[in-house]
Amino acid sequence: MGTPLDSREEQAAEVVDRLHEEYPDSTISLTYGDRLELLVAVVLSAQCTDERVNEVTADLFETYQSAADYAAASEEQLAEDIYGITFHNNKGGYLKGIGEILVEEHDGEVPDTMSELTDLPGVGRKTANVVLQHGHDIVEGIVVDTHVQRLSRRLGLTEEERPEAIEDDLLDVVPEDEWQQFTHLLIDHGRAICGARSADCGACVLADICPSEQGDGAVDLASGEAW
């Protein structure tokens, strides 16, 4: 197994530095042209791949170009238009509800506060953080998706299990000017090397400082189980 650095702060800084070198162009992988498209894409991406979302939104964004367009559509039509997205029926309802609230309460614009965003259907703190960061250039937290949840535990940066608790923990150890990029770096590394079902530790630039690095009797700290 690898040997983590003496403090979580040192560990986090080293992880960020190494991953910046490994993934110099790391950024959000959803395709969007404005704040509304970003919001819709992130809502659709819950439990669905960004690649699939981008395929579906290529046509969706041609049809729905304003909050009023979503508000005017039926849930059934929206669900049909996003067919292929995980939980498309539920998300069709979310999109209509989002459109209605944006029209009624925000003049059709995407709000720029955590509280207003999380009042929208289908929008939790993770989604709101993405919209704030990439739509409004407001960084007040760390987006904790499944990759960040898994890798931050494997790397010994947190022992928390719930995304909200993990975020609170990471805010204390990840440099503030890296909060936004931290997510993208861990997502890229999770996709390329450190998957949920398998980890290619032999090709990992973090193996020597990772307490979950595979070996005899080594434990995957993400699950608490032996490899």
UniProtKB/TrEMBL annotation:
Keywords: 4Fe-4S, DNA damage, DNA repair, DNA-binding, Endonuclease, Glycosidase, Hydrolase, Iron, Iron-sulfur, Lyase, Metal-binding, Nuclease. InterPro entries: DNA_glycosylase, HhH-GPD_domain, HhH_base_excis_C, HhH_motif, Nth. Its cofactor is [4Fe-4S] cluster. [4Fe-4S] cluster binds at C194, C201, C204, C210. GO terms for biological process: base-excision repair, AP site formation. Its EC number is 4.2.99.18. GO terms for molecular function: 4 iron, 4 sulfur cluster binding; class I DNA-(apurinic or apyrimidinic site) endonuclease activity; DNA binding; G/T mismatch-specific thymine-DNA glycosylase activity; metal ion binding. Binds 1 [4Fe-4S] cluster. Residues 44-192 form the HhH-GPD domain. Coiled coil: none annotated. It catalyses: 2'-deoxyribonucleotide-(2'-deoxyribose 5'-phosphate)-2'-deoxyribonucleotide-DNA = a 3'-end 2'-deoxyribonucleotide-(2,3-dehydro-2,3-deoxyribose 5'-phosphate)-DNA + a 5'-end 5'-phospho-2'-deoxyribonucleoside-DNA + H(+); Hydrolyzes mismatched double-stranded DNA and polynucleotides, releasing free thymine. The keyword DNA repair applies. It is an enzyme of class 4 (lyase). The keyword DNA damage applies. HAMAP family: Nth. Belongs to the Nth/MutY family. This is Endonuclease III. It comes from Haloarcula salina.
